[in-house]
Every structure is written in structure tokens, then in C-alpha cells.
Design a protein that fits this description.
Chain lengths: ~290, ~325
């Protein structure tokens, strides 16, 4: 119980420091709004996402339909709101998958080195050699297109990046004198990894996570754009963008709305990651 | 005098793809109880890896390839090199602890001083948190840290090098170890702080009954703190004696070179003395004496045959043909 309170205090402290930095504030507020949108999607969306207003197809933005309607007469604004939920879900869960595996592989490879390191890193090199979208396409087509499989595919695709980041940081931290010093007072490898190495690699790890989060949202959009991601009628920003192609000239708002949301979300996450790194660096904390 | 540490014929190898290179060659020395033992030598002569070997802290590509390191604690005598990993962990920090050269990097930047001091206690004792904090506070006061209560809550980057070295000493001594290895503890500090740290170590040595191995390249530090000294050159001991004899009755040409190279104030007339040449690289050791190339007293035999470490007077050992009875000129 005490530990939980301490962790919560730590998180609140980090958020406070984030808000002090004007750029961090923008990123934090952006992410915060997107999270709110996806949580309260059913409350905020004015219409049902599958409800078709057959009399008003491809209506341009107006008071009734803020972002207009699509070719089936569905409200674009409502679909964007629900799409936020999908994008965020995909982003967080797939980054969770790749961060977890990347951390484990990276720690093992970086701390123990030698043969284990070679085996893990060569395997990661193989995964890394494929363009990420191609690999994701391959995995989704093997597993079958669905929301869950999209998240798994994106998770696998991002694992090598995490493994490399973690391994490189572990190797540089491992050679620091305070690790030898920790060994010299009798700590076990597991204690050294959890207590000294992990907290010290947290900064690059967090930045990598936020970058990967925006990458994951983008990959999901691309997969959906190619028809292998989220399946209709569920909305996702990528699939909405994909469908808008056919009506680009008659109804440009169909493309603009999801595109703007994708850009804003990714930008917010990247900015947030950048300022998180500054906040987590103990040397900048005085 | 009883010994606390006996190093016998220690060999340390550097593993390379082309085969092993011997970095430490048959090094033997004994450290007595409550004694300060100095190890002095140039950079790269193997003094630090010898110290790491005593803690079994060598990691790939370094490896001990022979010899014994016998440690006599109150309870038992063990050969450190034959201990299993979990057995040596019980000795590290509790029986033998170490102080490092760079106090700035030897403390984890993300934890408070308090957490780092009680880390060893957590591992080696079952005290509760309150008692551990109290011990940490007392320890900080003992090593002469002002406003110790506040310092406990601070981070390493908020403190100066001298303060951090005091804290390192506090961490090393918190479990009352029997042997303290100090690997160039004053090298990174400025001269006034150096003197303070050395005084502190001398003081704590008597109050904690700890033996000290002092590793340094600075003969001044040796003169200040040690009782017995070994001079290392290219992975071997070339001279071993008590500190008074070393300074007043120097035997080995290398040691006299080192002594001449010490700078003194007010001596503007001459250029600084240097020993010409370089230490031979590990693995490319000459057949004869390793110091032959740089020696100003070399003889014919020096190039062909390596001298043994022999006792030239009571308690005074030297590795040089000048003193060997069998050495024919």
C-alpha cells in the first residue's frame, strides 16, 4: 500500500514537472485530450457510428454534422471520436507488447553478453531487416485481419527497436563504476539489474516508448489503409483515410479530418516523449 | 603478525582471440591484520586488476588463471578464487569492501545518499529500516560530513568530489569489513582534499580495526598511509619492503626512478626527471628482466634471464640481478 502511494506521488511529481515546461505542456494536454476522447467516446459522439443518414450523403461540414458525412451518410465526427479509441488501444497495447519483450531481450543480451547476446541480436537483426510495414502485412495475413492480430503484428515489428535501445543502454550503464561498486557490496545480478540498471535506462526507454506509440498508430493506419487492419464497419483513422480516397475531389473533408487527427496525436506523443526524457534525467532535476 | 590476506602465485590472463596474454605473473604478497599495505606502480602495471581479483570482480576478458587468494576472517579461512558466486557475495561488502577512484561515477546518480549507504546493510543484515537509517546517519558523521541529516536525502550530483569520496568510504565501512581495498581513492581529488581523505582513512583504520590495501601511483600517498609496500612493474612485484626502507634504502632501479620522478616545490632549476621508454605491453614480455630496456644499471645478464624476487635483507625483497648472488656479471 505504501509503495503504491509512493509510486503515485512519483507520477504526480513527473506530471507537475512536465507542465512546467511549455512544450511539455502542449504534448501532455494533447495526449490528455485524446485519452479523454477515447474514454468518453459514446458520450461525446453525437450519432451512432453505423447510423446512416441516407438523405444526407457526402454533406460538407455544417452545424448538424461538424465534420460532414461520408458516402453512406455516416457522421464523420462520431467516427473520428470512436477511431481515437481504436488508435489509442492499438498504440498502447502493441507498444506494451514490444516494450515488454524488448526490455527482457535487451536486458538479457546486454547484461550477459556472449553467446546469448549474439543469438538474440541476430534474430532481432533478421526481424529488423524487413521494412516494418511489410513484416506487419505478412504477420497479419498469416494470422488473419482483426484488431487483436493487428496489435500483435505491430508489437512484433517494434520489438527489435526496443531490444536494441535497451541493450545499448544496458551496455553503457553496465560499464559505469557504480555497477562495479554495487557488485563490490555483494548485490546479486538480479538486484543489480532491477535496482541499478533498470532505473538508469528508463530515460531512453520512455522516449522510445512514446516514439513507438506514434509509430504504432501510424502503422495501424497504414494497415487499415491497405485493408488489413481494422475491419469495417468499425472506424479507424487509417481506414477512414483509405475510404476517403475515392471522394477526394467531391468531399475533401473525409480525408482532412482523420489526417489532422493522426498528425496531432503523433505530434503530441512525440513532444510528450521528448519532455519526459528531460524530466526523467536526474541531472536536470535540481 | 597474523595475516588477513595471503595472495600466492596469482596469475591473471587477458583472453584474446589469438590466445591468452598474461597480465599478472606469479604475484604473491601478504597483508597483515590491521596493516596498511600499499601497492604502487605506473598505469597499466596490473595493480587495479589485482585488487579486483581479490574481490573476484574480474569480468570477461580478464580471468584469474592460477594461484590462491586466502582470506582469513574471524570465523574461517577461505580461498577466494575457489568460492562459488553466492559464497563470494557474502564476503563482498561484509568482510572485504572497496573504494573506487572516481567518486563522481561510483555512486548511482538516481538514488539518494541514504539509499546507497543502506544498500549493503539491507543485503548483509536483517535490521529494520529505522535502525539502518540511524546507522547511515552515524556513519556519515564519522566520516566527517557536515549537516549529515540533509545530505542523506540528497543526490550524488549535488555534492562535491571530496564529499562523495567520504560517502564512498562510509558505504565501504558500514558493515565493518575486515579488509578495505582502496583503488586510487585520492586520484580524482584536489590536493587539500586528498590529505583530508587520507587522514580520515588512517583514523578510521584504527577505530574500525580494518586492514587496508592502498593502490596508488603516488608515492606521497604511500608515505602518508602505508606500513608495507609492494612496487609493481609490468605485472610483477619488483620490490617489497616496509615503507621506511623503501624511501631510505631503495633497492630496485625502477623504484629509485619513481622516487626521483616525484616533483617537489621550489625546485625550478632542473627539468622533471622521467624514466625513459614505456612499460612493455602485456603478452609481449621480454625474455629477460622486464625493466631492462629502461634501466640505467643494466648488465649483460639482464637481457637474457629474468631475475627472481629474492630477499636481500630482512623483510626486503627485490627482483634485480644487482642483488642476486648467482648473478654473474
Amino acid at each position: 500500500m505504501k509503495n503504491i502511494i509512493e509510486i503515485l506521488k512519483g507520477i504526480i511529481n513527473i506530471i507537475k514537472q512536465l507542465l512546467k515546461d511549455p512544450i511539455g505542456r502542449i504534448g501532455f494536454i494533447g495526449v490528455f485530450i485524446i485519452v479523454l476522447l477515447s474514454i468518453f467516446a459514446p458520450k461525446i459522439a453525437p450519432y451512432d457510428i453505423t447510423e446512416m443518414f441516407t438523405k444526407s450523403k457526402l454533406v460538407s461540414p455544417n452545424g448538424e454534422f461538424i465534420f460532414g458525412t461520408d458516402n453512406f451518410g455516416r457522421d464523420v465526427f462520431s467516427r473520428i471520436i470512436y477511431g481515437a479509441k481504436v488508435s489509442l488501444q492499438v498504440g498502447i497495447i502493441s507498444v506494451g507488447i514490444s516494450a515488454t519483450f524488448g526490455y527482457i531481450f535487451g536486458i538479457v543480451a546486454g547484461y550477459f553478453e556472449g553467446v546469448v547476446d549474439s543469438i538474440i541480436m541476430r534474430f532481432m537483426d533478421v526481424l529488423f531487416a524487413f521494412p516494418s510495414i511489410l513484416l506487419a502485412l505478412f504477420i497479419v495475413s498469416v494470422l488473419g485481419p482483426s484488431l487483436g492480430n493487428t496489435m500483435i503484428a505491430i508489437g512484433i515489428v517494434n520489438t527489435p527497436v526496443f531490444t536494441r535501445t535497451v541493450r545499448a543502454s544496458v551496455i553503457s550503464v553496465k560499464s559505469m563504476e557504480y555497477i562495479t561498486s554495487a557488485k563490490s557490496i555483494g548485490l546479486k545480478p538480479i538486484n543489480i539489474i532491477l535496482k541499478h540498471i533498470t532505473p538508469n535506462i528508463l530515460a531512453p526507454f520512455t522516449v522510445q516508448a512514446t516514439l513507438a506509440l506514434s509509430g504504432a498508430i501510424l502503422t495501424e493506419a497504414s494497415l487499415s489503409f491497405l485493408g488489413l487492419g481494422i475491419q469495417p464497419p468499425d472506424p479507424s483513422w487509417g481506414s477512414m483515410l483509405s475510404e476517403s480516397r475515392k471522394y477526394m475531389e467531391r468531399a475533401p473533408w473525409l480525408a482532412i479530418a482523420p489526417a489532422v487527427f493522426i498528425i496531432c496525436t503523433i505530434l503530441s506523443f512525440n513532444i510528450l516523449g521528448d519532455s519526459l526524457r528531460d524530466v526523467l534525467d536526474p541531472k536536470l532535476k535540481l | 603478525m597474523e595475516n588477513i590476506l595471503e595472495v600466492k602465485n596469482l596469475n591473471i590472463d587477458l583472453i584474446t582471440e589469438k590466445g591468452n596474454k598474461k597480465l599478472i605473473d606469479n604475484v604473491s604478497f601478504n597483508v597483515g591484520k590491521k596493516q596498511s599495505y600499499g601497492i604502487v606502480g605506473e598505469s597499466g602495471c596490473g595493480k587495479s586488476i589485482t585488487a579486483l581479483a581479490v574481490m573476484q570482480l574480474l569480468s570477461f576478458p580478464l580471468k584469474t588463471s592460477g594461484g590462491e587468494i586466502n582470506f582469513h576472517s574471524e570465523k574461517e579461512s577461505v580461498n577466494i578464487l575457489s568460492l562459488k558466486k553466492n559464497e563470494i557475495r557474502k564476503i563482498r561488502g561484509k568482510e572485504i569492501s572497496m573504494i573506487f577512484q572516481e567518486p563522481m561515477t561510483a555512486l548511482d546518480p538516481i538514488f539518494t545518499i541514504e539509499r546507497q549507504i543502506i544498500e549493503a546493510l539491507k543485503f548483509h543484515t536483517d535490521l529494520n529500516k529505522k535502525d539502518m537509517s540511524d546507522m547511515a546517519l552515524q556513519m556519515l558523521k564519522k566520516v566527517g560530513i557536515p549537516r549529515a541529516e540533509e545530505i542523506l536525502k540528497e543526490y550524488p550530483h549535488q555534492l562535491s568530489g571530496g564529499m562523495l569520496q567520504r560517502i564512498m568510504i562510509a558505504i565501504a565501512l558500514i558493515c565493518k569489513p575486515k579488509l578495505l581495498i582502496a583503488d586510487e581513492p585520492t586520484t580524482a581529488l584536489d590536493v587539500t582534499i586528498q590529505a583530508q581523505i587520507l587522514d580520515l582513512m588512517n583514523e578510521l583504520k584504527t577505530s574500525f580495526d580494518t586492514s587496508i590495501i592502498m593502490i596508488t601511483h603516488d608515492l606521497g600517498v604511500i608515505a602518508e598511509t602505508c606500513e608495507k609496500v609492494a612496487v609493481f612493474y609490468a605485472g610483477q612485484i619488483v620490490e617489497e619492503t616496509d615503507v621506511v626502507t623503501l624511501f631510505h634504502n631503495t633497492a630496485h632501479p625502477y623504484t629509485s626512478g619513481l622516487l626521483k620522478a616525484v616533483t617537489s616545490l621550489g625546485d625550478k632549476s632542473k627539468n622533471l626527471f622521467t624514466i625513459p621508454g614505456m612499460v612493455p605491453a602485456g603478452g609481449h614480455m621480454p625474455k629477460g628482466c622486464r625493466f631492462e630496456e629502461r634501466c640505467n644499471k643494466k648488465m649483460k645478464i639482464c637481457k637474457d634471464k629474468s631475475p627472481e624476487l629474492i630477499e636481500i635483507a630482512d623483510g626486503h625483497k627485490c627482483r634485480c640481478w644487482l642483488y642476486a648472488e648467482s648473478g654473474d656479471n
